[in-house]
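Friendly challenge for the regulars: who can give me the C-alpha cells for this chain first? No prize, just bragging rights.
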Amino acid sequence: MGNTAFRMTSETKDLKAFVDKILADHNGILPLEPAWVARDFLPPGRRLGCPEELYDLGSRGGIGERWLASTTEADNRIKVPGEGLSFIALAGDTRLTLKDAVAAAPDLVMGSRYAATHPRGLDRLAKLFDYEFRIPYHLHQMKKHADLVGRNPKEEAYYFPEGVSLGHEPETYFGLHPSIVEQRRYDVLLSYLQDWNSDLILRESRAYRLVPGDGWHVPAGILHAPGSALTVELQEDSDVFAMFQARVAGRILDKELLFKDVRPEDRARLGERALLEMIDWEANGDPYFYENHHTPPVTIRRSSDGEEEWIFYNTTKFSGKRLVVKPGKTMTTRDPGVYSLFVWRGRGSFDGHEVQAGEAGKDELLVSHAKAVEELTVRNTGNEDLVILKFFGPDVCPDVPMLKPYGRVV
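First reply, four minutes later:
Bragging rights claimed.
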C-alpha cells in the first residue's frame, strides 16, 4: 500500500518549514496520492480504477473504498499501519502524510484563524465507496456513545455521480417503519441481533431507489444499508460503526462487527441489547424521512461556461460542491476556506495545476486556506465536461443551505 512514514533528511529537519516549502513550490495547492482501503465484509464493485491486483487481498478482502484527502486511519479487523491516510505526491522517495503535514503546520494549511478554533484539523473524511452488493444495515454511533470508546461520532452524506453503473442492488434502506417507534416496539430488532443468521432485519426498514446526481444526509444513530451505486461520501472524521445485518452477499458476517465499538463491560452486562441503546429512535421512525434527509443538488450559479451546485449540505459539520466546466470553457472559483477536491471527469487545469480524472497525482488536490480565498481559474482543455467535487470541513462554509424541517420535527 506504500504507507511509509515521513523520512527526515538533513535538509528537512523542521517539518513545518518543509510543509511551508511544499506549499510554496506548489503555489498553495497540494497534489495527493490515492489512498485505497480494503474491506472484508463485501466484494468490491471494481469501479474505482485501482490496480487490478488490489481487488483480492486474501483475508483482508479487497479494495472497496478510496479515501480522499484523508487524515483518518481505517479501523479494520486486520490492521495495516497507515491504511486510509493520504500522502502528498512528492518527487523522489520522500513520504509525507497529509495528516502529519496538517499537524505540523495547521496555520499554513487551514489558515491561522480556522486552525485556532478547530484543533482537530481538517476534521472530515471524503471517500468513494464501491461494492458489488448493498452494504449491510448498520449505524454509526452518536457522540455520547462514540465517546465511550474514545472515537468520534460519524454523521455522513452521500452523492451518486452520473455516468457509472448503479450495480446489482441500487436501493438504500433507511431508518425504521414509523409504527415501530410510534408503538415503542423497540425490542423488534433484538431477535435479529441475537440469532445472527439472516438479512431479514431489512423488512423492518424502508428502501429508496438511488438516482444518479442525487444525494442523502444521514446523521449518526440512523440505521441504513447503502445500495450498490458507486457513492461519493462526505462524513465526520471517524470509522466508527455497528453492523446490524448478519447475512450479506450470501454469507454470514463475523458477529464482532456488531460489537466493534461497544465497551466490553456494556457487552457483558447488556449483550445485544446494548446496541438498541445506540439507536436514535425518533429520527429512525420519522414518517417524513425522505423529506428531511433527501438532498438533491442546489444550484449556486449557472452559465454557458458551466455550473456550480451544493451536493453536501444540511449540516455545519461538513459541506461539498460540484463544479462543472464545459469543454473549452473557463470559470473562476473562490471559497471561504481550505478544501480538497477530486476530479471526477475530464481534464484541464486548476489554478495552473494540470488535472485529469483517473490519473494519480492529478485527480486529487488539497487547496490551502490562503489559496482557496483567492479567485482561482479553472480551465477545461478536454472534449467532455470537467467535473470537480469539492469537500469542506466543519464551519468552513457559513452559507451552506439547510433543509426546512418537514412534518414532525425530530
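Residues 1-12 have pLDDT under 50 and may be disordered. The first strand starts at residue 29 and ends at 31. Your move, everyone else.
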